[in-house]
Each structure stands twice: as structure tokens, then as C-alpha cells.
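Give me C-alpha cells for this 274-residue protein.
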Amino acid sequence: MAAVTPSPPTPQRSSLVDDTEVALRAWLATGTHRPGDRLPPELELAGMLGVSRGTLRTALDRLEEAGEITRRQGSGTYVGQAVRPTAFHEGLEVLRPYSELAERRGVVLSVRDLEIAELRIGAEAGEAFGLSPDAEAWTITRTILADGEPVAMMRDIVRPGIPLPQEKRLRRAIETGSMVLDLLLEQGVQIAFAVTRVRPRLLSARDRAGRALDVQGATAVLELEEIMHLGSGEAVQHSSDMFAPGGIDLHVRRNLEVAAPAPLVRAIGRSGVA
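Here you go.
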């Protein structure tokens, strides 16, 4: 009797849950949502992918176990937080106040060495505003603390004539972690875009900024010079911010816009039940 040759094993197909998990992970990797951002409701996500809510929930369970998302009872699903966040994690593609970035990462901001005064704007701000360097404008200088640790020394110069809150309210807002950008937006100033220049600086413990950031010896830091503009192109705020090592994590992501996760091809024509 002839021997029967066994058939090769049939490769195991991934399940619909597996495919949903992969699709969600790929969507999150595009950077459309950042740590702490709230994701669309489950019903909406399931519709985007073309799967049932049961399939989606199982895939989300897996992402939650891996720490890639978090769920809050009665609130929703959020992109997972880093275990040890820097004070600020910023993509330069979108203009957001540092106060918002810190809140998303669960970091509490406070301020020390706050100075608010009308001072000579100097050459850099004068060039940005198209004014004489000897012109005077409100200048706000302070050290930013994140959870009690110094992470940045910030100086903001607001173009003369741009509305700001009265000095007492301005001081109180800055002391509680608000940024000048927050206050300009509250005052109805139509900030449209910012131009940011990133450059390295070497500080010593003798420098004012070095003392503010508690540096020991020669220390390399990042300085961000940022100019805020109206839609007309007019510059209204000039900022010079120096960040201590570990104070900011900058990145630039370049990708095609992905508004929603793509529907699963294998789910088309199926009931969507895993």
C-alpha cells in the first residue's frame, strides 16, 4: 500500500481582530494624535475601519495592554502617555502653547524670577517688528519650572500697541503657568503662524540663564527664537526660550495627511463579527 504524503500545513490567516490592531497601530504611528490626545468614540472608529464594535474593543484591549492607549471610565480612549515625559514634547508642524503641551503630558508648570517691564526691544525684536531697537515694549522674562524643576528660561516681547491684560492680571496669569500666546489669544489677537529658529547654546554656571536653569559647568542647551505673526504677516511677538537638557523633546514629522484609519479591505462584504 502506497504511503500517503502529508499535505503541508495551511498557513494560519490573521484574524479580523489582528488586522484591526495593526490598522490602529499604523494610524497612531502617523502622528495625527499625540500622547494624551482623545481618540474618536468607539462607534466612530469601528465605522472608519468597517468592523464591529466587538472586534474594535478586542483590538483596543491589546493596545491598552501594550500601553499604547489608555481608557478612562466615562471619558474616552486616549493615546498612551510616556512613562517619563519631558516637560515639553513638541512637533514644530503645529503651533501650540507650551501650557497645552505640558497639560497633555501631565506636567505642572510654575514660575520663578518673573520680571514684567517696558524695556528697549533690542536689535532682534526690532528687526522682527520693523521698529527701532530703541523702541520700548512689554517684556516678560521668567524661569519655567516643570513639577518644581527648572526646564526653561523664557523672554517674550510683545509688539507695542498689541493688547495685553492689565499688569496685575498679566502677572497672575504668568505665575500660574499661562504663556504669552495664551493671553494674546484670549485678548482676541489673531495669531496665524509662527516662524521658529532652533540653535544650540553653551551656558556656564556664571551666565544668567545658566544660573536660572541650575546648570553645573559648561552645558549645551537649545534656544528657540520664535516670532508670532498675524495672517497679514505682521509680527506681534518675539520670543527667546532656552531649554535645559531634557526640558524639551523636539521633532518634525513629515507625512501625507491621514485624517482617519483606512477601512480594512478584508472587512468589506463581511458582517464585521470577529
